[in-house]
Amino acid sequence: MILAHNKTDNSQSFLQATELAKRFPALLSEARKISTNALHGAHGRRKRGNGETFWEFRHARAEDPASAIDWRRSAHSDALFVRETEWEASNTVYLWRDSSPEMNWRSQSYLPLKQDRAAVLLVALSLVLLRGSERCMVPGVSQKPGTGIGASERIAHEIITGTSTAKQLTQHSRQRQAHLVIASDFLEGEAVWKPRLDTIQQTGISVILLHISDPAEETFPFKGHTLFTSANGREKIDFGRAQLAQSAYVEQFFTARDQMRQLAHNNGWMFLQHRSDQNPAPVFLALAQSISNGHLS
Questions:
Q1: Per-residue pLDDT averaged across 66-88, rounded?
Q2: Which of 269, 271, 291, 288 shows the shortest CA–CA distance to 121?
Q3: Is the model more confident about 273 or about 240?
Q4: CB 95 within 8 A of CB 128
Q5: Closest CA to 102 of 164, 161, 165, 185
């Protein structure tokens, strides 16, 4: 699927990275505003139990073995203390933003880039999850999961500025109780995405597919002589009267989206869609509610 596109090549990579860094504070601020009104009480799972994350110190009991004593802490007191850890039943939620060139596009200057809208939604979701003691990680970017509010800026930065390929997405090792949110325009189509999703399905994790589109991709408003180029500039289609292709294009677009929706349905996954000229709050709430209602459990 090809649309009028700003040409992107390797020589522009540094400039794009710089631009992303400049946009980071604004995108993070937007995500925080969106997440502020979300209900996140259902996510909290923190309590004492078996795990690796420190919870608190408690006085040693007669049944505690010597190996459980924290001797460094006990050295500061006449009592013996045991280092309690947190019960690790929190979910690990992988948040993946498609960073392909097609996502670095918008049909009008007043609209957000598709990649920016995807980033804002995923960052907003990460803020809610981290506040609720879930674990978040960006496939192909994060070195380790983030937990708690202290990790929110790191995870946000990795979502907004990080890049990873779909190959990294399918190859990434996931732990038990891991879940995945994929934000993409899915323009590569069913033929490309089905093998990827089949690989993910074999891991048994829960998945949400978040379809991001620009309004021009849905309505094809172009008229008259129009030159369409692919994201890499290698493919070009020159229409003398672009409006003549509108009907066939729109039908193809919605057919392709329905195919992705059906793939999600076949695997028992959730499919959500969002257009970049719309208020992001409703689809964000749908994302948050799908998790709090037990979709990712």
A1: 74
A2: 288
A3: 273
A4: no
A5: 185
Q: Kindly tell me if the per-residue pLDDT of 5 is higher than 70.
A: no
Residue 144, φ and ψ in degrees, nearest 5: -155, 160
CA atoms of 272 and 111, how far apart (whole Å): 20
- What six digits make up the tokens of 52? 């690796």
Could you tell me which residues come within 8 angstroms of residue 143 by beta carbon, excluding any fewer than 6 positions away?
none
CA torsion angle 16 17 22 24 (round to 10): 110
Q: Residues for the chain: how many in total?
A: 297
Task: Report pLDDT for 115.
Answer: 94
Q: How far is 213 from 3, CA to CA, in rounded Å?
A: 12
Residue 157 burial (C-beta neighbours within 10 Å; 0-12, 13-18, 19+): middle
Is residue 248 within 8 A of residue 95, CB to CB? The reply is: no
Domain definitions of the chain by residue range:
10-44+89-292, 54-85
Mean pLDDT of 49-68: 63
pLDDT band at 14 (very low <50, low <70, confident <90, very high): low
How far is 269 from 266, CA to CA, in rounded Å?
Answer: 8
Contact status, residue 182 vs residue 96, Cβ threshold 8 Å: yes
CATH code at 10-44+89-292: 3.40.50
Q: Is 176 helix (H, G, I), strand (E, B) or coil?
A: coil
Higher pLDDT, 19 or 282: 282
Neighbours of 283 (CB within 10 A): 20
**Opening angle at CA 132, ends 128 and 138, nearest 5:** 60
Q: Which two tokens stand for residue 131?
A: 């506040």
Question: What does pTM read for this prediction?
Answer: 0.75
pLDDT tens string 153-201: 999 999 999 888 888 777 655 655 678 999 999 999 999 999 999 998 8
For residue 4, give Cα distances in angstroms to 99, 233, 254. Answer: 18, 10, 18
